[in-house]
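[SOLVED] Predicted holo structure with zinc ion

Edit: marking solved, answer below. Original request kept for reference. I posted the sequence and ligand SMILES and asked for the 3D complex as structure tokens.
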Amino acid sequence: MLSDFLSLIYPELCYACGKGLVNQERCICTFCKYQLPQTNHYRDRNNPISKLFWGRVNIHSAAAYYHFEKGGKVQELIHQLKYKGHEDIGAVLGASFGHVLKKSAMYEGIDIVLPVPLHPRRLKQRGYNQSESFARGLAKGVGAECLTDKLCRIVNTTTQTYRSRFDRWSNMQSVFGVRSPDYFDGAHVLLADDVITTGSTLEACAQVLHMVPNVKVSIAAIASAKTS
Ligand SMILES: [Zn+2]
């Protein structure tokens, strides 16, 4: 009731089209939601995102929710999420995609959702990691745990002592490390990212996770730039 009353004074607007939201709508109006170009990757094991990782790193399942089109609504939503401080978009899209993935055989038994960590310099500038709200939403949708401090960026800004703690679990090329690796033993881990382009960041994250025994790594992103 209170939120309905407040929305009369401060109407919440759709981040994609700018029109006022009604009733149960959150962040995106119903009209825009149905217009967003879904990839349906979650129905096809051999989708273009899966193929992107073939021969690079072992990925159980990979999918993007939407196609990223220049000048399109998905680009606008990502822009609002990344640069305008609207983290709630990530939560809404994550929960929605999570519900979709929960019904997909490709994503059975997800235990842990991990957001791809942001470079510390970026994190400082932006104040938040745009993949984190998406990861939290996904975890809620699939019924898994979201861990935001177990997969880390190891960069030269960290101290030597900090570095040595990760050495065993990070390879030479990777800037990523896994904290408390025992926690991941035998787990099906879902890596969450905003937009997939080359896949190299996700590849590096997955490689470091595969240093833990019996781990299964899958990927989910909000959008994928056209790969084919
Ligand atoms: Zn709209």
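OP edit: The pocket of zinc ion is lined by residues 14, 16-17, 19, 29, 31-32 (CB under 6 Å). Thanks to everyone who chimed in.
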